[in-house]
Amino acid sequence: MSIGHTLLGLLESGPRHGYDLKRAFDEKFGHDRPLHYGQVYSTMSRLLKNGLVEVDGIEAGGGPERKRYAITDAGITDVQQWLATPEKPEPYLQSALYTKVVLALLTHRNAAEILDVQRSEHLRGMRILTDRKRKGDLADQLICDHALFHLEADLRWLELTAARLDKLAEVVAK
Q: Which of 41, 85, 155, 169 has the smallest C-beta neighbourhood within 10 Å, fewest atoms?
């Protein structure tokens, strides 16, 4: 996820302070990974330097000055270009799990057990996500669906690999 573009998109509804941006980000996108304040302010500093936001006002308070940021026309254009650019599918060609299976075979360990343990962990994760999806709002349901579909694909791979484990052992032994 591009945090800079997400913050710019949030600014399109109007100027905000860093604190307000963090709160909006966490509310809409950060359920599992809230932003740190330092990350918000370092990102805003970079966006300011690049001309994508401007300081719309400064308020003095009991602590440090509070800057209110507004998106610039260049920032709006940047968000539009980012939204229009498709994300590259992640092919997962460097899988840690595949590496573990091959190393288990190479070192004469039980690769089937590794697959079974991983299958159990995936199923546990799917139960947690399914429960969260059942209790969540539409946004939470959609993000849970995304994660569940990926876990389902991983489970299919686990089953296929388990079925081909003997052949893989032969290939690895050469």
A: 85
pTM of model > 0.90: no
Q: Do you know the residue count of the chain?
A: 174
* Alpha-carbon separation of residue 43 from 10, 40, 82, 113, 128 (angstroms): 13, 5, 16, 44, 32
| Residue pLDDT, tens place only, 113-171 | 999 999 999 999 999 999 999 999 999 999 999 999 999 999 999 999 999 999 999 99
Block residue for tokens 């610039």: 72
Written as six digits, the tokens of 66 are 């509070």
Query: In one letter, which amino acid is 68?
Result: R
